[in-house]
Amino acid sequence: MNKTSIVRNIFDAKRIVVKIGSSLLVDTNTGLLRTTWLRALAQDIKRFRDRGQEIIIVSSGAVALGRNYLDIHSPELRLEEKQAAAAAGMVRLAHAYQEAFESYKITIAQILLTRDDSENRRRYLNARSTLMTLLELGSIPLINENDTVATEEIRFGDNDRLAARVGAMISADLLILLSDIDGLYSSDPNKNSNAKLVPEVSDITMEIESMAGEAQSNLSSGGMVTKILAAKECLAAGCSMLIAKGSEVNPLLAIENEAKCTWFRPNGTPYTARKKWIASTLKPIGSFVVDMGAINALKKGKSLLPAGVISIIGEFQRGDSIAIETTEGIEIGRGLSAYSSNDAQLIMGHKSREIYEILGYHGRDEFIHRDDLVINKDI
Q: Which pLDDT belongs to residue 149?
């Protein structure tokens, strides 16, 4: 991929997740924060924001900072030691980001996640809602795995896969993995001087997986294997992914200036991937029966409002897949409900402005937002 293509793809991305590895953020010899590097990264991100792009940061470094602060020198940390180091380091990590972005008047909001937050439907929806609200408010979410409470069973284990899961959660256009290596090679460049950089990947084949090499003794230490796993999740979600070396100052600017990197390019977009997921993967567990006014609005690409629903079938929770049916029982579409069946029963047939008076809280104006909705083409 040439320089023009790289710049165009970065510029075209509206929502970008940037993942930062510990070795970039924390000096491995001293255990201290690389403040000059972080300030330069903030400068890069400010430039992205000035172009109207939304940025989410997934950052390692809490454990590395914390173990230095707590004077823990063991080469391999027990889970409880890692949790203690994370608790001490998270405070310092968040403060460091806040200071780096303060001069640009950019607010940072920290969010700690575990794997369960992306796999439990209720927690997934709450996490996604918080992230989207922070972006609407102009803040940059700063995400890390919640090592202080995560057990082995609910840990991501590495921030590459956490970043990919976050990208899928918020329908990001691009995930940039800033690493200590400048991309995927045909073989280990440290062992083979003839190894070639792979500039672009559109499908994770067995050949691509073999290029990542053997998994390290503990996947939580990251490496190319976890980056390929992250790429699989990104491509399935319609999100592009880029691996680039991040050690030099202003690493994002370096990528735009033709630094070596590997692009992973999906066949679709986050929007089409999400629509496909709603249409073909999720099984509806309830139905909204709608009137002709709602049908006509849906044909025009509108959201489904409570006023257009005349009956509700089944019991369901917020975020569940719901079929949209005519009074004759014909399914015309499906989507993700913004309300549980109990609350939906109370507000169906009412105007959106009446929701607060009926339920006592400010919910969504629509039963199913158009972004969470797929309508059959032949209605």
A: 67
Give the whole-angstrom CA distance, residue 272 versus residue 297: 21
Q: Which tokens go with 373?
A: 């909705």
Q: Which two tokens stand for residue 261?
A: 């990197």
Rounded to whole angstroms, how far apart are CA atoms 212 and 232?
A: 13
pLDDT value for 222 = 57
Same domain, 51 and 161: yes
Distance, in Å, from the CA atom of 108 to the CA atom of 102, rounded to the nearest integer, reads 9
Which residues does the chain have with pLDDT short of 70? 1-4, 6, 149-157, 214-222
Whether residues 120 and 193 share a domain: the answer is yes
pLDDT of residue 217: 34
> Which domain, by its residues, includes 328?
282-375
Whether the CB-CB separation of 184 and 212 falls below 8 Å is answered with yes
Amino acid at 131: L
Secondary structure (H, E, C), 231-297: HHHHHHCCCEEEEEECCCCCHHHHHHCCCCEEEECCCCCHHHHHHHHHHHHCCCCCEEEECHHHHHH
- Name every residue whose Cβ is closer than 8 Å to that of residue 361 and which is 6 or more positions away in sequence: none
> Which uninterrupted H or E stretch holds 311?
strand 309-313
Backbone angles phi, psi at 80, to 5 degrees: -65, -30
Residues 219 and 303 occupy one common structural domain: no
Per-residue confidence (pLDDT) for residue 216, from 0 to 100: 46
Number of domains composing the chain? 2
- From residue 83, how far is each of 75, 149, 156, 210 by CA, in Å? 15, 7, 14, 33
CA separation for the pair 161, 139 (Å, rounded): 23
With a CB cutoff of 8 Å and minimum separation 6, the contacts of 185 are 195, 196, 197, 198, 211
The candidate with the shortest Cα–Cα distance to 233, out of 138, 169, 288, is 169
Backbone angles phi, psi at 205, to 5 degrees: -90, 175
Question: How high is the pLDDT of residue 77?
Answer: 83
- Encoded tokens for 143: 């995400």
Q: What is the CATH number of the domain that holds 56?
A: 3.40.1160.10
Q: What is the CATH classification number for the domain harbouring 360?
A: 2.30.130.10
322 plus 221 within the same structural domain: no
Torsion sign across C-alpha atoms 15, 101, 222, 212: positive
